Task: structure prediction
Amino acid sequence: MAEDNEELDRRGFLEYAGATGAAVTSLALAGCTGDSEDELEDGSDGGTEDGSDGGTEDGSDGGSEDGSDGGSEDGSDGGSEDGEDGSDGSDSEPFEITMTQRQDPTTLDPHDHRETTTDNVLLHAYEGILWRTGSGEIIESLATEWEQLAPDRHKFTIREGVTFHDGTELTPSDCAFSVKRVVDPDVGGLESPQRDQLAGIVDAEVVDGENAIIVHSDGVNPMVFQEIASYCPVVSEQWISDKSSDDIAVDINGTGPYQLAEYNEGESTVFERYDDYWGEMPDATQVEIIAASENSTRTGQLEAGETDIVSAVPPADAGRIQGADDLRIADTGSTRILFMPMRYDVEPFSSTEFRQAMNYAIDLEQMIEEILRGFGKPTGQPTLPGFFGHNEDIEPYPYDPEQAEQLVEESGHAGAEIEIEYPAGRYLLNDELVQAAAGFIDELSNVSCEAVSRDFGTLTGELLDGDITTQPEFYNIGWGNTTFDASQTMVFWLTEGTSGYHYVNEEMGRLLSQASEEADPEEREQLFKEANQLAHDDATWVFLNQEFLVYGINNRIEWEPRQDEFFLAQGMDRAE
Result:
């Protein structure tokens, strides 16, 4: 991924000055009707942080499936590898950071939301049992060792000497309680919307006589370490029991390097360093996190010196920011894929030939170059590069409108009139991408296509209710997968009976079912590679792009973006 980013940077910054708004607009509007200028402008303001409904689901081999002792390599945004109390390592002057993202947190309860923007606030103060580096490698956090005892039982040794911000000591009971609060609606006064993020996990218990817990699954579960490293922040059992749900939603008591100093709901969240933090003390002494939904507001704050780092910088603004003396752009490929599912149960999308034609019809490379200014990567399968189960032999569909027209004829659906429904303003320049895709399809001589904008919440409600008949026939969505593992995307979207399924294929069902129960990593990976090949060949989606994360940063801060969309002050250093 690093090599890809270097190539992107070299190419992208040359394109900033040369790409014109007229070229982008003409491409996005080709063949499309029904959208006002206001809707197009709203689309350009789409963010990349929010993981709600569209998923911040999981995926990666991550390294401990064989039951071996987990590593503790450096590189996390969190604590030190030896667990000893660390010094801040910076000079005595305060180092205060202001960060701006697209949305405010919806709650301060770490188990009662599904938004990456909320995590970007809460993960300054809350920590998980395990953690990941920015590139997805599993590392220690509140657990120092982890091992598989049996295919359905996994043991975690809990770090000693850790305290919550209220001064109470972390215990294994707190860790077991945190897992149960997510997976069991009868625990902790909450039916957590994160339940499916710990798929297969049903219970956790403290090991008698040891500073450890055992996590139980309902069968073979090769995803336990990945899920625990990606989700389930640890809370104090006593603190949760003593508080009302309303109190938990506006207060924080974690074990992380920052403690809550001030919370102004809908305006800002302020953290200060926690002096008794168990790990390496971060450079920043105070962190303020604010939100601005408009791209122009965020970039304006950065350029005016009102904030130090902003997320979701529009590619059109990147050149100006990069050209400023005290600012720079940093980007990376995210864990989110954008795609356009087609319902297998309705014509014309019941035809494999027609679905393939839709992929050949769009010039994906041109869309990425002209609309995203190169900040994106074309895809041809559900699993992104670097993820466990990615099939490196699969290439994206090439642009071939003649082949597309021929396949439409073979499908028996020449003259079809179709619509692509998309969530307005949800993802970075996604509105323009979908409108461009519809324009390319509409240019075929034997198909008419129109892009139709929808409210994000309304659309996802139709997609995720488990009833395929309420779904649009052809739509666009994005899906984040912070476990770096194929299962959390493919099982959810391509397995009959899940809340998001739109496609049924007996062979696909067999492959994914076997992979979900396969304990051997090599066998499991091969099953996912075969499933990805089938998804490509059967054209389950019109494949679009891997979304890129683009940040504007003040040069007084040293920081490299994470793939999982988290931007956390504990990973930021004072520039020398």
